[in-house]
Amino acid sequence: MKKIAVIGLGYVGLPLAALCAKKGFSVVGLESRREVVDVLASGDSHIKDAAVERLLAEANSSGNFYPTAVIEEIAGCEIFLICVSTPVDGDREPNLQPLIGALESISPYVKRGDLIVIESTVFPGTCEQIVLPILEQGTGMKAGTDFQLAHCPERVNLGDLFWTTENIPRVVGAITESGARQAAEFYASILGGQLFDVREIRKNLRPKFALVPDGYSVKQIPLGSVTMMRSIRDAEAVKAMENTVRDVNIAFVNELAKISDVLDLDVVDIIDGMATKPFGKGPFFPGVGVGGHCIAVDPEWLKTASKKAGYMPEIIQLSRMTNNGMPGYTVSLLQDALNDRGYPVKGTRVALLGVAYKRNVDDLRESPFYGVRELLEKKGAVLAVYDSWVESENTVSSLVSALSGAKAILIVTDHDDVVSELHEQDLRKHGIEVVIDGRNCLDAERVINQGVLYRGIGRRS
């Protein structure tokens, strides 16, 4: 069985390395953070995710997974899976330095016949214009002839117990047709799904709906399938564009939420009503902001690539402005609600609930929490920060402590345990007078019946 090097053991690399080990490959996981290597070497996961923890336990039982911070340990590997972070910087410009550093590190260990796959998110053209020259210079060999270079964009959905690294359909592109085939066959070997050519997809998804005896069925791509794109650029664009579509749609429902506020509508009920139509829509829901390494980042990569090619994508730009402005909009709802109850923001204690960018994960990347906190601090609010999944930003140790003495609650993250505990609380006994539900996750009537002023994002008061 081939020996695999997984470079970067974060949210993408760790479950991928564990899956490869579970499937019988000998896996060296290279991670620069020694404290992470120590945790993994002890058999534990540094990522708080049930699916990742289960997969890691299976990998450890196989005896095939070896985490290390020592670069020399990747010698002899035949497949290199690059899973390092590719964030955006303070100016919202793509930062390729982690990827460049990883490529320069592995180059001395790449041999003829090896396969290198970039899983890290990149903008279209990165693999050919940046990755390929670095690898050819570092190895002294020719990509596509001496070794193969492919891109398989990660699709990790952290916190999802159904869609995991083991079954999410993947797309693969490479600089040669044979490289695409080699990479696709490798991914099919760990996912166990079918291989498709991208030109087969539309045919395989039609007709989308079919009548069956008890209703109708919906055609889907099979679990764990691998689709070969016709170019490595197309593969790069799949990730950037699929998350940009989500970003644009979320921006649009955030706009609908603002319209609903001024027209006294309940956008959540409206979206649920729209969901009864089984074709032609999302649904997407509004909120305090988007975060994570996909929706909040991938559109920036696509925008940068488009700008460099001479076209400013105005819809993407407007969507980014809309979603980036949602923390400010949410804080304005809080300010107005506090004014209605006779309180200024300055000097008022606010329970700020949630730091992670989405529920039931401990991932802080691009979380709207930071924008909300900064705005509230500038306005002089006294903040009690609590997240049951993330401790690093907490100023109190429990939900009850956060509520104690607070006049308002602002929800950034709708963790299941926090929402459940909130529903059990008598908010007025804690002195709460205002709730700003940034995720539209609470039972609004229950809150209002306690005599508390409730405001959601686009929800009827």
From TrEMBL:
Oxidoreductase as UniProt keyword: yes
Classification via InterPro entries: 6-PGluconate_DH-like_C_sf, NAD(P)-bd_dom_sf, UDP-Glc/GDP-Man, UDP-Glc/GDP-Man_DH_C, UDP-Glc/GDP-Man_DH_C_sf, UDP-Glc/GDP-Man_DH_dimer, UDP-Glc/GDP-Man_DH_N, UDP_ManNAc/GlcNAc_DH
Regions annotated as coiled coil: none
One function term, GO molecular function aspect: oxidoreductase activity, acting on the CH-OH group of donors, NAD or NADP as acceptor
Biological process, per Gene Ontology: polysaccharide biosynthetic process
Residue ranges of every copy of the UDP-glucose/GDP-mannose dehydrogenase C-terminal domain listed in the record: 351-444
Keywords, ordered alphabetically: NAD, Oxidoreductase
Family the entry assigns: Belongs to the UDP-glucose/GDP-mannose dehydrogenase family.
The name this protein goes by in its record: UDP-glucose/GDP-mannose dehydrogenase C-terminal domain-containing protein
Organism this protein belongs to: Solemya velesiana gill symbiont
